[in-house]
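Local shape tokens:
==================
===
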Amino acid sequence: MTPGSCSAGSGRSRRGAAPGFALPLVLLVAVVVAVIGAVMLERQAAHHRAGQRQYESYRQQHAARGLREVIAQWISLAGRGRAVSGMLDDAGRAFQLTLGDGAVVLVSMFDAQGSVRQASADLPAEDAARMEAIAQRLGTPAPPGLLRPRGPVRISAASAGAAVLRAAAGSIAGDDIGERFAQEILAARSQAPLSGREIAAAASRAGADATQRAAIDELFTAAPTLWHVLLEVRGTGVGATGTSQRFAALMLILDAEQGSMYASPVRFLEWRELAPDERPAWLSASAGS
């Protein structure tokens, strides 16, 4: 074979190898393009989901604000000074409202002041000491549901259980009077809605002297201002899926000294949406009381 023929054969060999080298390169480029495309689509989808979440959060905030305003207006129109308990039916229902889109809002309220306020730095020293003395009588640790971290120091005699009634009155007048006072209040509640006058009368029947009666009357109230609120929104136009929603709130009704006639008569200390099957502990306790 001549040198020229070898050179020509070598050139043909190199030209024949080119397609075999190009195919992996084309595949690699295709894979890179596909990956970049997938990443861009995922980023676009993520941005869309984030936008949807932001919109839903914005919508929920405004819906919750509207519901709070409805409750505040109801309290204001019904009379800030009136006892809320006198405006509720036997199941705790306050009112229901039909919205423009056909959805129905059901609002129920339950006395949240029948437990003992925990002592904390934001309380006056005298009140903190009184609450600590009652808490010690409840045991360490206190049974669930008998202490609360916020709200007024006064205890609702209309919803407090025997343990709280006994411990609170006992911290003032001793165990024997505390026990009798608890029994008197429970008996009075079983006959009719409790009145403010009945608290002092129960203390008197329990054997408390004048000073003890005054202290017990100051510690307890028959017109609580701290309320659990359950809101149920049913029907069309509810949420992103049109399903019912439920909210739980803790509401403090302000007295005339805490707000002007133009300010909201209530302050919401807690507000959250409930899971579909969630039942707050306070709702179960209210149903069993």
Q: What stands out?
A: The longest strand covers residues 226-234.
